[in-house]
Amino acid sequence: MYRAPSRHRVRILALATIAGLLIAACTNDSPAPLAPPTTTDSQATSEPSQADPNPADADETETPDAPPDETTAVVDEADPAPNDIPSVDTASDERPTQPPAADATPDPPEEPLEDPWASRRRDLLIQLTDPADIELLAEFGATVGERRGLELLREVPVYLLRRSDLVTYFDALFDESDIEEAEFEEATYRLLGIIGPDLDYLTLLEELYVGLVLGFYDEDVDSFILVSDNDRISRRDLDTIAHEYIHALQDQHFDLGATFDSIETTDAATAFRFVVEGDARLSERLFSDLVASYGPQLESSVDRLPGASAVPFLLRQIFNAPYILGLSAVARIVDAEGPNGIDFWLVDPPRSTEQLLHPERANEPPITVSDPNLLDLLGAEWSLLGTDTIGEFVIRTLLA
């Protein structure tokens, strides 16, 4: 999974894709602010297993050692990435006939702002020291760029994180604006009937993240973290490593954080997450030979996924969608446009989930719908909490 920048953490990674909806709340009966969870709650940006996506509503029986499903593979590994390709005109709704070139010499990243939690986060991470694990990662790293058609521009450090520390790690990333966004998402989900009146939204997100995450790429430190109670890499980690290396490539060449920052609606953000996660899931097959080679040499994981059975069904559906629907969408794109066809969408993100759910509408921009002036109708005792743009994915999920 990819962890979005701070101000998008709740809206994008929690996949609160509620949109086109004008939320008005009575000032005398507005939703209560979310209290910090009693156990150092966090907005963890965790996601389902990469080797086994482990949809939250699926059987929790763990089968970590099975190789990736080759039947979904549509990437032609023999077709290399073009070396001299025109850039994408993001102002046009028509996509070019050639994928965009990756910038092999990007500008150096700006110096990050001082993070008061940085030391605390680092203290939770466990450095890999076993020579066999280091050798394994070196081979994956040397292979990732060549097979994906994107050069690995710099090394990607890998750390371990105990599952018991996962909540604390993400809690260290949360700020006041994230809590405010979560309040809006909670109010919206209550109005839509996705969560009940007695359920705490942040607690539900915590259960999703802690119950399902196997690893994540943290763009703040240009590293990815494997969640495990082993001190070494296990068999289950291999597909997660392949998945997170793809996120590192995406970020190095296409600056995922800047793209998420530029997206204004949660429908568009969800569509982009379909691209980001679908690309990583489909690309896992590029490493199937390494997984098969190293797997028998590694121990099984002692860390078992708790699952998220208490999370409402619709919220689980929304959470899992980028790994399931995103995989299908990316497979269609690669099948039609070639191995690097997905790079179009990483440079020029989709503007709606409709564009990915219906390939024939890939060049149809969303239609802007003006908000009705509900405040005049409701009266002065009402106030606006916020607005957003809903898309086809959430609408059809609710109706289904």
Describe this structure in words.
By secondary structure, the chain is of the alpha/beta class. 41% of the residues lie in helices and 7% in strands. The chain has 15 helices and 7 strands. The chain has a 5-stranded mixed beta sheet with strand order 1-5-6-4-3, sandwiched between helices. Strand 5 (215-218) and strand 6 form a beta hairpin. Helix 7 crosses helix 9 (266-283) and helix 9 crosses helix 11 (313-337). The longest helix has 25 residues, at 313-337. Mean pLDDT is 75; it is low at 5-92.
Short summary of the structure?
The chain has 400 residues and is of the alpha/beta class. The protein has 15 helices and seven strands.
Q: Which helices and strands appear, and what pairs or packs with what?
A:
Elements: E1 2-3, H1 9-13, E2 22-26, H2 118-124, E3 126-127, H3 131-148, E4 158-161, H4 166-171, H5 176-192, H6 201-212, E5 215-218, E6 223-227, H7 237-254, H8 256-262, H9 266-283, H10 288-294, H11 313-337, H12 342-347, H13 354-357, H14 374-378, E7 382-387, H15 392-399
Parallel strand pairs: 1-5, 4-6
Antiparallel strand pairs: 2-7, 3-4, 5-6
Number of strands: 7
Radius of gyration: 21 Å
Q: How much helix, percentage-wise, in residues?
A: 40-55%
Which word captures the global form? globular
Order of SSEs, N→C? EHEHEHEHHHEEHHHHHHHHEH
Widest beta sheet: strand line-up: 1-5-6-4-3
Report the structural category: alpha/beta
Uncertain stretches: 5-92
Strand count, sense and barrel status of the largest sheet are:
5 strands, mixed
- Give the overall average pLDDT: 75
Number of helices: 15
